[in-house]
Design a protein that fits this description.
Elements (H helix, E strand, L loop, with lengths): L1 E5 L2 E15 L40 H8 L24 E17 L2 E19 L9 E19 L5 E22 L16 E23 L4 E22 L28 E23 L2 E12 L2 E2 L11 E2 L2 E14 L4 E22 L8 E22 L4 H4 L12 H15 L13 H6 L4
Antiparallel strand pairs: 1-2, 2-3, 3-4, 4-5, 5-6, 6-7, 7-8, 8-9, 9-10, 10-13, 11-12, 13-14, 14-15
């Protein structure tokens, strides 16, 4: 909703609500008999070692995950579902989940003189509950259930120039607060307690991870742009951010199969009556504050109307955090902020009155403390199945180029389609659109020399106008 109490004051309110009942997500295994380009990626590893152990050969050693699953009783034939995308899951289990989120924002713009003051307030709440089959097999190897909810709100205040001066600027403050509560459980239930194919060798097990996570940050930012001449512009920006994150982490796990017990298998995740212990039971409280300064510099040159050359250097930071997927004490660690230096040079152009645009960009990205998601077998996980967690790598870089070509035809009214006839020479966008529509709607008749052409009357008669 938009309110305009006066010509200098605007208030915009936005609300959103979403509720979803869905089934997501599973995985299928594909062997090199279906896709030869994956090499030995999904073949059993023999001996057990990391992929690529033999230099020069892709995924030479195979997939240790396949070894884990077959050792726990999985039928090897089910590890190659081909392109049918049929998922192997334990009977009675699903990927069902329910998600609900809602929120809103209010933006107030107040203009006075050649300056505009803007306030943006936002709130969002998210809640999810889901279950799944962790091993993607019809055996009772591992299952999971998770519930989580989060709330966040933000406030931005900024001042910006709105005049026709060569000098343009934006300055402001930003605040953000988020709270997350998460409760996740995994288990291997006793054989015969739930529907499943027989044959697994996974011992009975249970684990539950609960944590409270909060993040609070504040920032001050400024962006300055100056038209040195009618063709040369220089834009610089900077932002200082202070962010504090806190994690209260608790994990409990059964020490062995004999210690497990449940009072209700249908609600196994909150009916565990066995004992806890072993290395999988631990807790910890982590807190970290980071200060970061990010900035960018962009000179640009308008070579001719509709043709722009530019260079951009930007230093950015991806927020740090904690490894909330930890299943052993050693994995409960801090993930440091990821830093990026980005170099970009490009050309932007517009042709035929904006009907055609062509852009080209070359770039180099240099990452330090890059955050990567590690996936692999974890002896601390229920059933020994795979786990994923974040950690920092020392550095990474990306080199690349991007080309973009866009054709935007005018609307039917602007192109005066009633006057178009096949073969008539008109401007580029009209010709491209007309030829496409004639072929689409008239078929082979469009190629006849005496075809009447695509007229406005024809479009109206056939329901296209």
């Amino acid at each position: 909703m938009l309110f305009e109490p006066s010509s200098d004051l605007r208030v915009r309110l936005i609300g959103d609500y979403t509720k979803r009942d869905e089934k997501c997500c599973g995985a299928t295994y594909v062997s090199n008999s279906v896709n030869p380009y994956i090499g030995n990626l999904n073949n059993p590893a023999n001996p057990l070692q990391q992929p690529g152990a033999n230099p020069g050969r892709t995924n030479d050693s195979g997939n240790n995950i396949v070894n884990v699953l077959t050792a726990l009783g999985q039928n090897p034939a089910l590890l190659n579902a081909g392109w049918s995308r049929e998922l192997s899951v334990s009977p009675g289990r699903s990927y069902g989940g329910r998600t609900e989120d809602y929120g809103g924002s209010m933006q107030i713009d107040w203009s006075f003189g050649d300056t505009t003051l803007t306030s943006i307030t936002g709130y969002e709440r998210y809640q999810v509950s889901s279950g799944g089959d962790s091993d993607y097999t019809p055996l009772e190897i591992a299952r999971n259930h998770s519930e989580a909810r989060s709330t966040q709100w933000s406030q931005e205040l900024r001042l910006a120039s709105n005049g026709a001066s060569r000098f343009k600027w934006i300055a402001g403050l930003y605040y953000f607060k988020e709270d997350i509560k998460s409760d996740t459980a995994s288990a291997t239930l006793p054989d015969g307690s739930v529907p499943a194919l027989p044959g697994d060798t996974a011992p009975n097990a249970f684990s539950r991870t609960r944590y409270d996570h909060s993040a609070e940050s504040g920032a001050a930012f400024v962006n300055l742009g100056y038209d040195i001449t009618d063709r040369f512009n220089l834009t610089v920006g900077g932002r200082f951010t202070r962010e504090t994150k806190t994690l209260d982490f608790r994990r409990v796990s059964s020490p062995n199969a004999a210690a497990t017990a449940w009072s209700s298998y249908p609600r196994w995740w909150d009916s565990y009556t066995g004992t806890f212990g072993g290395t999988g039971t631990f807790s910890g409280v982590l807190e970290r504050t980071w200060d970061n300064f990010t900035y960018d510099v962009t000179p640009s040159w308008t070579v001719a109307p509709g043709h722009l050359l530019y260079f951009k250097f930007a230093h950015g930071v991806k927020s740090g955090g904690f490894n909330t997927a930890a299943q052993l004490p050693v994995a409960l660690q801090v993930v440091e902020p990821e830093k990026l230096d980005a170099f970009e040079i490009g050309y932007k152009s517009s042709w035929f009155g904006g009907a055609l645009t062509f852009n080209a960009t070359a770039f180099h990205y240099q990452y330090d403390n890059v955050q990567i998601n590690v996936v692999g077998p974890n002896p601390g996980a229920v059933g020994g199945v795979t786990t994923s967690y974040l950690q920092n790598a020392e550095e990474a870089h990306v080199n690349g180029a991007e080309f973009e070509l866009t054709i935007v035809p005018h609307t039917l009214g602007e192109t005066v389609m009633a006057d178009y006839r096949a073969g008539r020479q008109v401007n580029l966008e009209v010709d491209l659109l007309a030829r496409y529509l004639e072929r689409l709607l008239l078929g082979d008749k469009a190629a006849e020399p005496k075809a009447s052409g695509l007229t406005e009357g024809f479009l109206a008669e056939n329901g296209y106008l």
